[in-house]
Amino acid sequence: MNLPFSENLPINRLASVFASTSATYKFYWFLAILEIVEEGNTVIPKRKLFTRMISNSWYTVNYFYVSFGKQDLIQGAVRSILEIENLTIDESKSKINTVLENTNKIQTLEILNHFDLNVPHWFISPWFPGIRNRKSIYELSQNFDNQCIYALEKESISINPDWISYLKSNSKILKDFCYWNLSLFLQKRNPNVPDIPNKLIKSVTRSSLAKQTNDYWKPVFQELGSIECIFTGNKLIFEEKKYALDHFVPHAFVSHDLIWNLIPTDKSFNSSKSDKLPSIDKYFDKFFNLQKAAFEIVKQQNSKNKFLEEYLTILPNLDDRNEFDYTRYKESIQPLITIASNNGFVYMKD
User: Fold this and answer.
1) CB under 8 Å to 193, separation ≥6 — which residues?
2) What pLDDT was estimated at residue 207?
3) What is the per-residue pLDDT across 172-213, written as a single tens digit (0 to 9) for each?
4) What are phi and psi of 71, to 5 degrees?
5) Does the structure show a pLDDT above 70 at 45?
6) Pairing of β 43-45 and β 235-236
7) How far apart are CA 303 and CA 68, in angstroms?
8) How far is CA 93 from CA 124, 175, 182, 258, in A?
């Protein structure tokens, strides 16, 4: 991915900031700078930047359980601050920023200040090739030597006036550049985790499952009269609306709403289940039987129902031989559950 060209700025220096990274610090540091410059600030307290590093990584760590690697301290920092400040895993970004910018809790301040040891000066090291000394980079930056992007002070950074217009006018592209590199970095450390790019930002709203409910599961309800919740055994009736479509493998892990992972469950149970994992041994057979029955009903009533095509991602022979194959289905679901567990998702309690 190429950055926008500038005749007057050393864009090659900026393009190389992520060339050698062993942790996510630089990605989240640069994202924080871009956000705050967009807001009209050019002299930026470091604490505000460290706060944004935490809030920008909050959802990726706490909701999606993406691993940042053993060397990375942001992941541990986010989880510690969650407990220290008594915040929630889906806390709004604005509240996290407000809390961290105003907290007096020593533990939180120590966590934030730890990022000052390396992040601010290592980020601009491409502007000072061959110089590894923290003090030297600080001193050289204060005169904007080599047109470096900002000057370093003890408590703040000052954006180089030559860079302000470029950062503002190209903010969207620069953020995409940052997220693209962050995605590549995290995918290497999470090779079996699906859809990393969509786990970097908290979506404004979750997609509605109304079409899946009305176009796919409603005919199944009407044909069967009722559906038994595979978890509680409760009888679910369409008109009573006491059910919710549940992701068998949590949405927070798969990050999609494909029909082969969705089943109606008791609404109150679904709320308490949240993103916990179901036991394959205990629940897969019931899940499979319900899915198979639903598929056969929908296919018989409307073989062109678009949701039927979504099964092809796990059952590629379905069109040719109508094989709703138990073993293939289980071999698709079971690894997802195992990998999710390895990444920090917990199992439901029996």
Assistant:
1) 66, 67, 187, 199, 253, 339, 343
2) 78
3) 999 999 999 999 999 999 998 889 998 998 875 677 899 999
4) -80, -10
5) yes
6) unpaired
7) 44
8) 27, 17, 19, 28
215: DSSP letter: I
Asked if residue 248 lies in contact with residue 263, where contact means CB atoms within 8 angstroms, the answer is yes
| Alpha-carbon gap, residue 304 to 347, rounded angstroms | 36
**Paired residues of 266 in beta bridges:** 243
Place of tokens 């999606």: 64
pLDDT of residue 320: 62
Residue pair 187/207 in contact by the 8 Å Cβ criterion: no
The tens digit of pLDDT for each residue in 159-172 reads: 999 999 999 999 99
The three-state secondary structure class of 145 is: helix
DSSP H helical ranges for the chain = 11-15, 25-38, 46-62, 74-84, 93-102, 106-114, 119-123, 134-141, 161-169, 171-189, 210-211, 218-224, 251-254, 267-273, 280-301, 318-321, 326-342
Report the pLDDT value the prediction gives residue 97, as an integer from 0 to 100.
95
Does this model's pTM top 0.85?
no
Virtual torsion, Cα 10, 16, 17, 21, nearest 10 deg: -170
